[in-house]
């Protein structure tokens, strides 16, 4: 995989399982916040599955579309786009009444110093969306940051484990879940809380950040010594398939890969590939932000792209100076400051 076109095609290639699940789903699909890192490929994946399966559904993509060519790109794929600021009541009220909603709107980076906007996006807006669509089913993108740091030998937090968000971003994400859950109870809205960490493709993510530092001979902080990752295409597929598992009260699903990866070991693998010696700072702590996604594997099967495949693809991408986007994960953060 060497070009953005090849990457986009891989991300948007539907599995038979996705097509079969969408065939069981009544109604169209609307993605709120389609302009983020994962939204465009999720929209294209849904559209391709619908076309390949001849399912006769429509995909809507909603974003501000304030710059760039994304709106035209999605329209060219057959996705109906709607330019809207969801914080504006008139824009929200003007959206079509769609049965299936993937809620991806939110704010993370830049929270420090702008906490009020993060809370408005992550905790106020969910209530407005839920009140606007009381008869839809909603998959709510959330995050593993709602959990506390857990011992690395404990295989990650499970869905029924107590939450313990660290920092205002994570607290606001728990606020998003709590507000949606309130309206799920009030209006009997079936939902899934989709707790994701960390999705990657070749242009961003934990593996790319490690590979770049190894390749550029920059020190790698291993204080947060472990993490989980999942291929973005698999995460997007799971999100769409989660529409079948929406319930009241909401279903909670952890979404990530099956491995607890060692940051040091991954860096050493990239070092072997690049023939460069990784530089490390800090010392691994005995806790990390980790999730146990066994329940999602029971529902959807294991990810189609393995950890080793992601490592190989990322290494090749870096060696060939592939295109990247400047959206670091800040996975090293232990105090929740974003």
From TrEMBL:
InterPro entries in UniProt: Epimerase_deHydtase, NAD(P)-bd_dom_sf
Pfam families, A to Z: Epimerase (PF01370)
Residues in NAD-dependent epimerase/dehydratase domain copies: 29-196
Superkingdom of the source species: Bacteria
Annotated transmembrane regions: none
Protein name stated in the entry: NAD-dependent epimerase/dehydratase family protein
Upper classification of the organism: Bacteria, Bacillati, Bacillota, Bacilli, Bacillales
């Amino acid at each position: 995989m060497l070009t953005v076109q090849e990457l986009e095609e891989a991300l948007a290639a539907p599995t038979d399982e996705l097509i079969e699940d969408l065939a069981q789903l009544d109604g169209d699909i609307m993605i709120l916040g389609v302009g983020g890192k994962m939204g465009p490929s999720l929209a294209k994946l849904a559209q391709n599955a619908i076309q390949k399966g001849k399912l006769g559904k429509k995909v809507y993509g909603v974003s501000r579309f304030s710059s760039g060519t994304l709106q035209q790109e999605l329209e060219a794929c057959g996705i109906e786009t709607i330019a809207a600021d969801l914080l504006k009541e008139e824009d929200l009220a003007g959206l079509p009444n769609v049965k299936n909603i993937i809620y991806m709107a939110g704010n993370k980076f830049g929270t420090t110093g702008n906490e009020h906007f993060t809370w408005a996006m992550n905790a106020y807006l969910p209530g407005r969306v839920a009140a606007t669509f009381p008869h839809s089913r909603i998959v709510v993108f959330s995050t593993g940051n709602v959990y506390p740091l857990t011992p690395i030998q404990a295989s990650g937090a499970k869905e029924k484990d107590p939450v313990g968000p660290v920092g205002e971003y994570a607290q606001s994400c728990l606020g998003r879940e709590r507000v949606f859950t309130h309206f799920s109870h009030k209006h009997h809205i079936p939902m899934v809380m989709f707790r994701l960490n960390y999705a990657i493709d070749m242009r961003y993510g934990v593996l790319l950040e490690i590979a770049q530092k190894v390749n550029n001979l920059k020190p790698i902080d291993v204080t947060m010594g472990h993490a989980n990752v999942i291929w973005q295409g698999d995460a997007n597929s799971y999100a769409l398939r989660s529409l079948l598992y929406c319930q009241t009260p909401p279903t909670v699903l952890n979404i990530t890969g099956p491995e607890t990866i060692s940051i040091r070991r991954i860096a050493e693998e990239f070092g072997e590939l690049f023939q460069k010696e990784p530089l490390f700072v800090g010392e691994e702590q005995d806790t990390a932000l980790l999730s146990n996604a066994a329940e999602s594997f029971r529902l959807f099967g294991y990810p189609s792209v393995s950890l080793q495949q992601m490592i190989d693809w990322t290494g090749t991408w870096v060696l060939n100076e592939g295109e990247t986007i400047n959206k670091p994960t800040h996975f090293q953060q232990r105090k929740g400051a974003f």
